[in-house]
Amino acid sequence: MRVPRAFWLALLLLLVVVGIGAVGAWGVMRYTASPGFCASCHVMQTRYVSWQRSPHRERATCIQCHSEPGPWGELRAHLNGTRYLYVMLTGEKSGPILRATVASETCQHCHAPLTLPEATGSHRVLHGVHLARAIECTACHGGLVHGSLYGHQARPAMETCVGCHARESQVLLSCRTCHVEGVTAGVARLPR
């Protein structure tokens, strides 16, 4: 049985349309993954400036941090980013406008767990213990990239450590658990 010529023309036309659509979708994904695109939204401008002034500017883009690794993670991040557009078009604000998160797996894509320091300056930081307990990197380092418009690295405040350890630990830690060199005058004490 001979297939009509119209069938082949329709199939060819369909393949051309699908091909153009795929190339167009890829182009849109690339464009919307650029930090410049993120900065085009009013609410993102301060976040963009803080990223530009941070050391992460040379290492990662918005989409690299705010998506899970891989193409499906990036697609989910793009779909999540459409929430802002939806809120602007409809005015519906029943929840947070921005829902951008950073998963620990994303951090570990660049910062391998085995290479994380166990001490920084005079503080002991047991990254391995925290990761083993499934504590998200952002629990301590939430303001790392967007914490300052001046470009210096935001470090976790001691209150963050003390508050979490006071809530989560059965046994309160002594100051020497974290302070390698000892405690300096004027440092807040652990709650009793």
Helix content: 40-55%
| Class of secondary structure makeup | mainly alpha
User: Counting H and I runs of at least 4 residues, what is the number of helices?
Assistant: 9
Spatial strand arrangement across the major sheet = 1-2
Regions with little confidence, pLDDT below 50 for 5+ residues: 182-192
H/E series: HHHHHHEEHHH
- The amount of beta strand, in percent, is under 5%
Radius of gyration: 24 Å
Find the count of extended strands (DSSP E, 2+ residues): 2
CA(first)-CA(last) distance: 88 Å
The largest sheet is:
2 strands, antiparallel
Q: Can you give the mean pLDDT?
A: 79
Shape: elongated
Structure description:
The protein has helices at residues 5-32, 35-39, 45-52, 62-65, 71-90, 104-110, 127-132, 138-141, 158-168, and strands spanning 119-120, 123-124. It is an all-alpha fold and 192 residues long. It has a two-stranded antiparallel ribbon with strand order 1-2. Strand 1 (119-120) and strand 2 form a beta hairpin. The longest helix has 28 residues, at 5-32. The protein is elongated, with a radius of gyration of 24 Å. The termini are far apart. The model is unreliable at 182-192 (pLDDT under 50).
